[in-house]
Amino acid sequence: MNADLRPIKTQAETALAEAFAAAKERLPGGREVAARREAAFHRFEARGLPSRRVEEWKYTDLRALMRDAKPLADPPGRARPQALADALPGIAARRVAIVNGVYVPAWSDAEAGDPGVTVTDLFTWLADNPDYPLDRDSEPIDRALALNSAFMTGGVVIHVKKGASVAEPIHLAHVFSGEWAAAMYPRTHVIVEAGAQLTLIETFDGPAGLDYQVNGALVLSVADGATVERIKVARDGAAALHLATIIGSVGAQANYREFTFTTGGAVTRNELFLRSAGDNAKIRIAGANLLKGRQHADATLVVDHAARGCESREVFKSVLDGESRGVFQGKIIVEPDAQKTDGKMMTQALLLSDTAESDNKPELEIFADDVQCGHGATAGRLDENLLFYLRARGIPPKEAEALLIQAFVGEAIEGIAHEGLRDILSERVVAWLEARQ
Amino acid sequence: MLEIKNLQVTVDGREILKGLDLTVDKGEVHAIMGPNGSGKSTLAHVLAGKEQYEVTGGTVTFDGVDLLALEPDERAARGIFLAFQYPLEIPGVTTMNFLRTALNAQRKKRGEAELTAPDFIKRVREASAKLGVDQEMLRRPVNVGFSGGEKKRNEILQMALLEPKLGVLDETDSGLDIDALKVVADGVNRLRSPDRAMIVITHYQRLLNHIVPDIVHVLSRGRIVRTGGKELALELEAKGYAPYHDEAA
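The joint structure predicted for all components is written out below.
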């Protein structure tokens, strides 16, 4: 079969092409950026929206799931959205407001007295750094990322200087606040220099009734000896489409850990392409999805071990109720020179209904001979014997179930270093369970 | 307090209890002894309300209430406690959280106020000190990584805190060395009271040296075939269960 043979454009593909043609003149950035947008859109257009025939998208058929493409969101209005304040109440952090995909300095915390870190508007920064990579320029081209590179509507660049330790986490509060469904393409670049430390929190919030679309990108560079924790809390409206891609590299002796917590959105896909570029880096990628109704959430990650002695851990938990579907695709690549790699991947799904579905696809591609790699995947119901044990102690069935589900998700949440976030996410699990009953 | 009449129970279509009668009054400690497969654990699980055990005939009355009509958690709140032969591990739930959730759920069901945190902690400290359970164990997930002895002590700790009217101890001695057995037995003995009854289920007589029963029953092939005083246990130790196989056959 000819790989170039593609079916006619879908409604969404046509709408994307029209939206790009209409928007490209007024999208921000100079001529350099405009040229790169154009190239990125061509990369996307040559391939189109991925269907289930594309192996990486087998379980998340975007061609079918993305019925149409929304017009670009209007710039934020005058009223500060309440969702900004509600995103993570009680967490001390430097707030950066990204509303409708645009950085809003007026609603963000002022430059604090932290000399080790700068937060700069994306396009201001790109003007000074015209050659900075926006995309993976080699195969496989990621189509969601290519769309973001074409449409990117705004965002910030966070730069932590060598050896600096950022006391307060930086909180990127992404909010969609429109009257009608639209699309936003926020982009963040994070550069953490050698020996520096950063906690980055990203939240995504939006109204329940609108089928708005988010396509976010994060380009991450963690230099030698740096320590970065990233926590993403995706609480999009129930009808939203959420695509997010991270590309990043982690240097020698560096420590990168991240946690993604997804409860919102109709269709969510989180992609991560991470390369351990220096020896003895430590990487932990974890997440929890709590889904109900017809929600669909996909975590697809590729960890490429390119250097010696690196450790990677992946821990994903899904709680799936109703007709929801949780997808996990994890690939560990160990390149020929990456001896002494220690990679482990564990994914577990708890099915709360007969109609929920869990798809797990772990992959190991190992080209070195002195490595330890393993993966495990489980999917199942709550253990009847455990439920009986709890009930025999007087705990009513719903409460017993809730306790076991909390414990199940808790094992993943425990790995978050930031204590306040750990507590908030534990509370959100409880709230999710209460809403279910 | 507990009255079991002609109880018949099947598990996976197999009849295990075939017309069991047993009456337990408050303050009494009954031992139920019997060979493997006689139905001892089935009796324990049926009293606690495990679903897989199907009651096909007979009645169980507890304090005048039809016990078989109640859910497991309702039975617990009314004062039935089963100490499991194989206590389960609950990853992610600390022992402390488990104990507090159980205690408050029972109190709520009985219309009592939930315990305040300091009040609860005081009770746990007292009860665990008596059983030699250290505080570190309370902060660990329930039974995860516990030794056999620690698991059984944890069961008795739960019983001490939940203060049941009827404690059913299912082979609490299994898997314990003699030192651990003594600690557990001492814990049980401290819980003996004029208002509390206990059913001690065991295969071996040695546990009954430490928890001395008022009444001993022999269970064989789904029925109680003999009842006597504590000396019956010694007789069983000497002669074995073989005579009762013949009697029941």
